[in-house]
Amino acid sequence: MGWKYFHTDLAAAKFLATHQQVSLRSLKKNKKKVSRVSEFVSRFKILQRIYTNPSCPKEAMPNDLETAIECGKKHPDFALKQPGLHLLLLAGKDGVWKDALMEAWSVARSNGSLRSVRSLQSLTREDLDAQIDVLLAACHELDNCDKSLWNANVGRKNLFHAGWLQLMTKFFSILQTVKRGGLRLSKAFQYGPCRNRAEARARLQVLHKAGCILNKLSTPSSLTQWHAVFTEAMKYLRKVGPPGFCKRGGYSMQ
User: Fold this and answer.
1) Residue 188 backbone phi and psi in degrees, to 5
2) pTM of the entire structure?
């Protein structure tokens, strides 16, 4: 049974309790604030056995990771030509966001409004404005599309803590949360123009630098290599500080 069939945490817990033949209450543990490195390594070993197994069912892979791999196959040059936008593609999580962003990028590239930028050299104002227009086009495309499946699974209960909604509301001011009766609705938002282009340009400039740094790192093929690359990446990214990046830990890099 793949993870996507568990629509609630309770359903997943009940399945695990039945499988292990233990009580549901015995599975409950106090949440730790910080996980030890050894715990991350043990989790990675388990995931490595799952994803490298040829018999692993397709539905066992998280949908946000699956769609990221599909985008990489369809547009292998995107990460090199648009390092900053590529990070927003991955951080956006949802498949509908990735599709909308890639479509907006393809249109901008074909009409010549967005040029390829590979180096660490600072982007021009025109480059940054063109990237903002790509984000605007992607959000406009998503304004009326059905996002209920992704909101109920990948973005369940955390729409404004991670993913494209958080990025476009908190960091780029393209989407606005909707208030009704004095309460902010977690699943309601309005599409609008970028309210602070100067701030958006600055953040896209930082994202471009971060993307270029990551593109220069080697691709790890083992846990030992991953730890070395991870440590090197964190050293540089802490200095750059891209939007949504947690300097105190490595969660945003995993």
Assistant:
1) -110, 135
2) 0.71
